[in-house]
Amino acid sequence: MAEKAVWEVIGGKDKGKEYKERLSFASLVEQVELVGKRLHYKLLTGSGPESGKAA
Questions:
Q1: What's the pLDDT tens digit per position in 20-32?
Q2: Strand pairing partners for 31?
Q3: How far apart are alpha carbons 24 and 52 in whole angstroms?
Q4: Sequence-distant contacts of 7-11: CB under 8 A, at least 24 apart
């Protein structure tokens, strides 16, 4: 079985819409699916939504 890709959050405070809860800087997320530039993720470390989609 192939390993899932892990991504590190490195920015975004000045981008996109403001949400109540955001992924914190340096959080690690596991890639569930990548469609174009949109990442469906599951939070591994850090704070923020447990799962979601990010651009």
A1: 788 988 999 999 9
A2: 41
A3: 14
A4: 7/31, 7/39, 7/41, 9/46, 9/48
